[in-house]
């Protein structure tokens, strides 16, 4: 996958490329989301060859939620990560994504979009961690206590 196994400079260029493609209407957000979903379907296999791929994809999704074109919405998390919930990858990627949005757009923006998406982070957690105190601890640990 382009950029996943490269250094940070190359990863930043990939982010800028997709933001440009969206800004210039070369691709639209529906096309982007469909293509990105295909990558997420393969993430567990990609992680074998490219350690850290899921973290990069979380950052990438967060960035794409933060750009003016809003290529992805926060509600995309629950739809796109459902197959990764029981392995724990779903909550990891979601936390990285939301942390990136928080860093890029601020607390007010991420809280507003998170609430509007009506996502319950509990549903992104593996079954054995679906207790409210576990979710609260997890979100606080990830710097996302503002979503509680």
SSE order and pairing:
Layout: H1 8-23, H2 29-41, H3 43-49, H4 53-66, H5 76-80, H6 89-105, H7 107-117, H8 132-141
Description:
The mean pLDDT is 90. The protein has 148 residues and is mainly alpha-helical. The chain contains 8 helices and no strands.
What is the strand tally?
0
What's the story with the biggest beta sheet?
Answer: none
Give the helix proportion (percent range): 55-70%
As a whole number of angstroms, the C-alpha radius of gyration is 15 Å
| Alpha-beta content class | mainly alpha
CATH class: Mainly Alpha
Enter the CATH topology name: Serine Threonine Protein Phosphatase 5, Tetratricopeptide repeat
| Helix/strand order | HHHHHHHH
Question: Distance between termini?
Answer: 35 Å
Number of domains: 1
Count every helix, treating DSSP H or I runs of 4 or more residues as helices.
Answer: 8
Shape: globular
Strand content: under 5%
Query: What CATH architecture do you see?
Result: Alpha Horseshoe
Flag low-confidence runs: none
Report mean pLDDT, rounded to a whole number. 90
Summarize the structure.
By secondary structure, the protein is an all-alpha fold. The protein contains eight helices and no strands.
